């Protein structure tokens, strides 16, 4: 059994619910007000507890000696009134982007060590790939994984498409 620990609402959401409730009844007790808020939230399909969310990705970066490395990164997301009147949404800090393209690799494709053409976010939307950095570490990335490539001025990385499936990625240049 789960226990609701806290509610997270914007001031506007609370005021509009209270205005609605007070305009239809002369006297509303705290207990009935809370019950009405809960039923309204359940009716709208809102999860009543917002837990902390983190955005996780892997960064490939070049060090001063131009060698490349992996770093696991987590960004704490903040609940914001991002798309009113929808409930609060966990949002990462904003970043600027230049362009977005989708790229594809045939099963078995291999690219020996090369630097990223630009700093870019890469999101795997199909397939699996193995990436090796110059410090010797290798990682397998799967559908849904996100990589931030910051190795444009380094010795780079190698990429191999693993498995029998082609690989598709959405690339966002930053």
What do you see in this structure?
The chain is globular and about 65 Å long. With 174 residues, it is an alpha+beta fold. Mean pLDDT is 83; it is low at 1-7. It folds into 2 domains: 1-51, no CATH class; 54-173, Jelly Rolls. The strands form 3 sheets. A 6-stranded mixed beta sheet has the order 2-1-10-7-12-5, with no helix packed on it. Strands 6-11-8-9 form a 4-stranded antiparallel beta sheet, with no helix packed on it. It has a two-stranded antiparallel ribbon with strand order 3-4. The two termini are 45 Å apart. The chain contains 2 helices and 12 strands; from the N terminus they run H-H-E-E-E-E-E-E-E-E-E-E-E-E.
């Amino acid at each position: 059994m789960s226990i609701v620990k806290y509610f997270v609402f914007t001031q506007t959401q609370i005021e509009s619910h209270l205005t609605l409730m007070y305009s239809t009844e002369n006297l509303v007790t705290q207990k009935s007000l809370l019950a009405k808020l809960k039923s309204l939230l359940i009716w709208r399909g809102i999860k009543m507890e917002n837990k902390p969310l983190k955005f996780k990705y892997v960064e490939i970066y070049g060090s001063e000696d131009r060698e490349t490395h992996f770093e696991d990164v987590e960004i704490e997301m903040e609940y914001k009134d991002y798309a009113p009147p929808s409930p609060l949404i966990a949002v990462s800090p904003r970043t600027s982007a230049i362009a977005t393209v989708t790229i594809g690799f045939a099963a078995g494709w291999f690219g020996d060590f090369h630097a990223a053409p630009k700093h870019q976010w890469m999101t795997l939307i199909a397939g699996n790939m193995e990436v090796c950095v110059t410090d010797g570490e290798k990682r397998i990335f799967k559908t849904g994984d996100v990589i931030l490539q910051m190795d444009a001025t380094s010795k780079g990385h190698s990429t191999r498409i693993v498995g029998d499936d082609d690989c598709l990625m959405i690339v966002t240049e930053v």
